[in-house]
Design brief:
Blueprint (H helix, E strand, L loop, with lengths): L12 H17 L14 E6 L5 H12 L3 E6 L11 H9 L5 E6 L4 H8 L3 E7 L5 H15 L6 E5 L6 H12 L3 E5 L15 E3 L2 H5 L4 E4 L15 H8 L3 H4 L7 E3 L12 H4 L6 H19 L7
Helix pairs in contact: 1-5, 1-11, 2-11, 3-4, 5-6, 5-11
The structure holds phosphoric acid mono(formamide)ester (CP).
Length: about 300
């Protein structure tokens, strides 16, 4: 593994499979009566989240504690960021206290690459702007492989707000690297220009995208990143692109339904689908802990770091 985990773009297929295989072993730790191993004892991990998070931050914290790291989360709203301190100054001041790893979420695409260049600590990207969210794609791949036993050759339909989604970018990079056939679908206004260059099929017909799919992955409408009118109304969006039971019926009979969360119920996904028998949405959340334990362990040096 390289010094930092900045994105799926920097990972080889072999490194992705190493993380997924390591996560299998890590998951077993979470099933023990005492869910703790001494692997990262003496290591300090700082969670630095400049954007809100429920799943990613909580699962990183749980992963760090299960590996016995000394861990702390900076509450940005109560930090000197509010007095105007920059990302770089904030990071350099944290660096001065000698952490081993810094887990970063930031609204600016490229924030983690910037910190990677100036920090001695290992940087883990927990989502940077509209760029990448690598641990989300890794936990998604882990969940898909658990259900389908492979990723190569699967048809994966990704539907929703493609334009603003770092989850889309990381998943497209990972799934195409591992040989899946990826379809993406959303309103024309929410499809990034040149998507086909990434080796995916683009369709504005959600029915076409999900036809015979093995996996349907829904993406959130990110109203907080929309400055203009990308969709006429949320109701109209649901009518044309919302994942309903009727649309799911076009996929393979054993298709799984995924969503990285947080969900807008009744906007991109109907509650009967989100809570239905094919939904693996809460499994994704559970798998996030094992995958993040694997990332922390491997970045700390794997077996050689123990
Ligand atoms: N999937 C995801 O990143 O969720 P959070 O924003 O709650 O971390």
């Amino acid at each position: 593994m390289k010094k930092d985990l900045l994105g799926i773009a920097e990972l080889s297929s072999e490194e992705i499979y190493l993380i997924l295989d390591t996560a299998e072993a890590m998951r077993e730790i979470g099933q023990r009566p005492i869910k703790k191993v001494p692997t990262l004892r003496g290591k300090t991990v700082v969670n630095l989240f400049f954007e809100p998070s429920t799943r990613t931050r909580t699962s990183f914290e749980i992963a760090e504690k299960r590996l016995s790291a000394d861990t702390l989360s900076i509450a940005v709203a109560a930090s000197s960021v509010l007095k105007g301190e920059t990302l770089v100054d904030t990071a350099m001041n944290i660096e001065a206290m000698s952490p081993d790893m810094i887990v970063v979420r930031h609204a600016a695409s490229g924030a983690c690459h910037l910190l990677s260049r100036i920090c001695r600590s290992r940087i883990i990207n927990a989502g940077d702007g509209m760029h990448e969210h690598p641990t989300q794609a890794l936990l998604d791949a882990f969940t898909i492989r658990e259900h389908k036993k492979r990723i190569d050759g699967l048809k994966v339909a990704i539907v929703g707000d493609l334009l603003h989604s770092r989850v889309l970018r990381s998943n497209v990079l990972l799934l195409t690297k591992l040989g899946a056939e990826v379809w993406v679908s959303g309103p024309r206004t929410l499809v990034p220009a040149g998507m086909e260059r990434f080796g995916v099929r683009v369709s504005t017909s959600v029915e076409e995208a999900v036809a015979d799919a093995d996996v349907i992955m829904m993406l959130r409408i990110q109203q907080e990143r929309m400055q203009g009118a990308f969709i006429p109304s949320l109701r109209e969006y649901f009518t044309v692109f919302g994942m309903t039971a009727e649309r799911v019926a076009r996929a393979k009979p054993d298709a799984i339904i995924m969503h990285p969360g947080p969900m807008n119920r009744g906007v991109e996904i109907a509650s009967e689908v989100a809570d239905g028998p094919y939904s693996v949405i809460l499994e994704q959340v559970a798998n996030g802990v094992a995958v993040r334990m694997a990332v922390l362990y491997l970045l700390a040096g794997g077996p050689e770091g123990e």
